[in-house]
Amino acid sequence: MFYDDYKLDDTFTTKGRTITEADIVAFAGLSGDFVELHMNEEFARCGPFGRRIAHGALIFSISTGLTVQMGHTNDTVIAFYGVDKLRFTKPVFIGDTILVKKRVVELTPKDETRGVVAFETKVVNQNDEPVVVYTDRVLLRRRAS
Fold first, then answer.
1. Interval 87-103 mean pLDDT
2. Is residue 76 within 8 Å of residue 144, measured between CB atoms?
3. Of the chain's two ends, which shows fewer C-beta atoms within 10 Å, N or C?
4. CA dist., res. 138 & res. 145, Å (int)
5. 3-state helix, strand, coil in the chain (%, to 5)
6. Third-level CATH fold of 3-141
7. How far is the C-alpha of 52 from the C-alpha of 23, rounded, in Å?
8. Contact predicate 37/91, CB 8 Å
């Protein structure tokens, strides 16, 4: 989709993805984040959630991947333009399934060839509870005049 194809309040939903132990271990290795709340079941059992949780940054990263897999902007994206108001609102546990709900909240033309689309983004779990929320922007090509 080009910038010009989007309209305010357009909505999109990705497919779901179940979070696994392998996801958490791989992300810890890539990021260097081995905090015990993510890696140590006995430690986490005594913590605020009663068990291990996925890294918030992992869930955010997976949400960007699920969005890309929709294929809407693979040929039109120029750049990921930024993220605002990123909040981790609920823990994600091993075995939870997440999906991403997006709504167009702002359209900003840059010039004749580019424009920025802003999305209100909610990552929800299998119970439709928001686990990560943010506003993200992408810089997209415009259709040729």
1. 98
2. no
3. C
4. 21
5. 25, 35, 40
6. Thiol Ester Dehydrase; Chain A (3.10.129)
7. 13
8. no
In angstroms, how far apart are the furthest CA atoms of the chain? 61
Task: Supply the pLDDT for residue 126.
Answer: 98
Structure-token pair, residue 27: 């992300």
CA distance 107 to 118: 6
Give the domain ranges of the chain.
Answer: 3-141
3-state secondary structure of 8: coil
Residue 62 has pLDDT above 90, yes or no: yes
Is residue 121 within 8 A of residue 136, CB to CB? The reply is: yes
Helix runs in 1-145, H state only: 21-31, 36-39, 41-45, 56-69
13: amino acid identity, one letter: T
Q: Is 0.85 surpassed by the pTM of this model?
A: yes
Instruction: Tell me the pLDDT band of 31, cut-offs 50, 70 and 90.
Output: very high
- Integer Cα distance of 32 and 21 in angstroms: 16
Of all helices (H) and strands (E), which one includes residue 104?
A: strand 97-109
pLDDT, position 145: 64
Query: Taking CA 66 as the corner, what is the angle to CA 130 and CA 25, rounded to the nearest 5 degrees?
Result: 85
